[in-house]
Structure prediction request, 122 residues.
Amino acid sequence: MINIRLLGANGFCLYSALVLFLTILIDPAISQELVLSINENYTMENCTLQIEDIDSHAERVWLLIQHGQEPSLSMVLGINDTLRCGKLTVLVKRIYAGESADIVRLTVNSTEHDLPDGGPLA
Prediction:
């Protein structure tokens, strides 16, 4: 446990400045895990990800990305590959082989601020 001893107004100002600095330093983000199969989609923050195909042997997933009114972008990603779309960053965590269908596990992080170009990137 951190023990902070406040010494009058100067100590309080130092404490307030430290709290403000840490608040600015830590960019608030929302993280969520998804498990999707072929033809399923996920929409958040004006960005839609659709799973077109999954190859569990090659550990690849084919995604269709739609961001706002922009044309769709098609990408093939492997394990630990990421893509960005607006405020979202998507990480391919794992690909599983199933009897009837393969599935992919994604981690989606949403930040408070749009990425520099605002559009999808690999």
The longest helix spans residues 8-25. The domain at 28-111 is CATH 2.60.98.40 (Tick-borne Encephalitis virus Glycoprotein; domain 1). DSSP finds one helix and eight strands in the chain.
